[in-house]
Amino acid sequence: MIRSLTVTALVAYLFVLLAVTLAYKHPHYRPVSERLSLTPFQSIARDIPRGGRGLWVNIIGNVLVFTPLGAAFVVLERPRPRLGHAVLAGAALSSAIEVLQYQSGRRFTDVDDVILNTLGAGLGFVAAEGLRRLAARRGGREPA
Q1: Residue 34: its pLDDT value, please?
Q2: Strand partners, 110
Q3: Which residue among 84, 114, 122, 123 is least packed, with the fewest CB closer than 10 Å?
Q4: How many angstroms separate the first and last alpha carbons of the chain?
Q5: Euclidean distance between CA atoms 91 and 119, whole angstroms
Q6: pTM, rounded to two decimals
Q7: Which residues partner with 36 through β-bridges?
Q8: 21 and 101 in contact (C-beta within 8 Å)?
Q9: How many CB atoms lie within 10 A of CB 129?
Q10: Is 87 exposed, middle or buried (0-12, 13-18, 19+ CB in 10 A)?
């Protein structure tokens, strides 16, 4: 039952994620050179000291939006969920979204988004696995 609910929630999450990341068109057209950032950590280094919207939307938002994907692997990869699988899925999905954003010309494409999304998938996995182990210990059984 929990597996079916997780799959359903994952499908809904992916639909919303793709709709949000691909449907929205940036309000101001920019040439490709201004819509493409392939320098790792460039926007992260810019947004952390500035704080404000850049920090919350670009950095924290990009991490948080991929945590459900990582957490889903804890439920779906029974009995031995693997962090590497969650991280790889996060990197692959994020890379695919960035390529589609570039191809469409509707959004900015930034390698830092891939880095932050991948981190989010890994953190989601670690948090969910930690909760699963804690619940197993409290229930009197060893985690699988």
Answers
A1: 79
A2: 37
A3: 84
A4: 18
A5: 9
A6: 0.90
A7: 109
A8: yes
A9: 19
A10: buried
